[in-house]
Every structure is written in structure tokens, then in C-alpha cells.
Specification:
Layout lengths: L8 H5 L2 H10 L2 E4 L4 E4 L2 H9 L12 H6 L15 H9 L5 H25 L4 H18 L6 H9 L1
Antiparallel strand pairs: 1-2
Helix pairs in contact: 6-7
Length: 160
């Protein structure tokens, strides 16, 4: 039996051994302490997020929302179910069509390359914090017409 707690010191320090055990022994795992489910395999996450009859996002999708209940769930694309989710996605869709992406690809590719070069000196980086978050924020600024100089302010606002 796996006693998985995403907020435990062991998981925070090195989650990978626990994640391996979850995938092998309990890929769909109920955490009694937090009264929520954990899906350890991509396919299970994909299937659950496609099953709107049996699963909902409205209670939250992040560890802090589900486990600690410290962070309230604000309506966003990640925390609403169809038909609201479908409507929001419809409004965002135009930004992710091939032609729209092609217009900003060169600028984002250059930006991502510059970020990668800055990681070379350190020899490591956090893929989400150091690459995905800044690139997605840059893309959001470009498609919304915000100056890229405002990225730190916008990032702070999002984190708040």
C-alpha cells in the first residue's frame, strides 16, 4: 500500500521514486487524507479529463486546491466543465490555429533559444518555471498586444 502525500517532505525533495511506485502499483490512487484522487499515468489523466459524466474540474486541479483547500478555485479554463469550458475554448481557439501560431513562431523560437542558452551555464533548469512559463507568458503578451517589458508585472499578477 502506498501512502502518497504530495506535500510530504519525501515527495517534495525527490518525487520521482514515489511517482514510479504510483504508476506501477496504484496508478489511480485515492488519498483518504485529502479526500481526492491522483492519476499517475498520462492515459488515465487524459481519459478522466475527457469523461465529463464522472469527473469534474470545478473543485480544482492543483495540489494546493485539492489537498490543503488553502487556495480557492477561481473559474478558468482548467476549472470549468462543459459547456462553459467548450465556450471558453472556442474563444481561445483562433490563437492556436496554424496560421496564428506561424505568425509568432519565429519570435517565440528565438526567445526559447535564448532561454536555453542561459541554462547552459547553470547546467540545469526547471522546465515549467524556467521555460514553459516564460514562453507561454511571452506568447500571451504577443497575442494580446501587451509590451513584453510588462512580463514581470503580469507574471506577478498571475501568481497572486
Amino acid at each position: 500500500m502506498i501512502d502518497y502525500d504530495p506535500l510530504s517532505e519525501q515527495v517534495i525533495i525527490d518525487p520521482h521514486p514515489v511517482y514510479r511506485r504510483l504508476r506501477a502499483e496504484s496508478p489511480v490512487h485515492y488519498m483518504e487524507k485529502y479526500r481526492c484522487w491522483v492519476f499517475a499515468r498520462f492515459k488515465d489523466i487524459w481519459d478522466a479529463s475527457s469523461d465529463t459524466e464522472n469527473f469534474t474540474s470545478t473543485l480544482g486541479t492543483a495540489v494546493m486546491q485539492l489537498c490543503t483547500k488553502d487556495i480557492g478555485v477561481l473559474p478558468s479554463l482548467n476549472t470549468v466543465d462543459p459547456p462553459i469550458h467548450t465556450e471558453i475554448r472556442g474563444h481561445l481557439r483562433r490563437y492556436f490555429m496554424p496560421r496564428a501560431v506561424a505568425r509568432i513562431e519565429s519570435e517565440l523560437r528565438s526567445y526559447a533559444s535564448a532561454l536555453f542558452e542561459s541554462f547552459l551555464d547553470e547546467g540545469q533548469f526547471d522546465a515549467v518555471r524556467d521555460l514553459a512559463a516564460p514562453v507561454s507568458l511571452r506568447a500571451a503578451c504577443i497575442v494580446n498586444g501587451f509590451p513584453v517589458e510588462d512580463e514581470p508585472l503580469l507574471q506577478e499578477m498571475v501568481q497572486r
